[in-house]
Amino acid sequence: MQTASFRCNFYLLPAFSLYAFSSAIEVLTLANEATGQNAYSCQVVSGDGQPVTSSCGITISPAVGLRSERDRNLRSTPAPIAIVCGGRSLPRNDSKLEAWLRECRHRRARLVGIGGGTFVLARAGVAEGRRCAVHWEQFPLFQEQFLSVIATQAAFERDGDLYTCSGGDASFDTFLDLVGRDHGVAVVNRICEKAVACRVRSAGDRQRLPPNSRIRFNHKAVVQIIDQMEAHICDPKSINGLVAAIGLTRRQVERLFKRELGRTPSRYYLELRLERAQLLLRTSRLSVIEIAIACGFVSASHFAKVYRIMHGCAPHQTRLFLREVGQDHPYNPLVGGQLGEKPGHIPATANRRLGDDIAEVAACASRLSSNTQRSS
Question: Which part of the chain is the HTH araC/xylS-type domain (predicted)?
Answer without folding.
Answer: 223-321
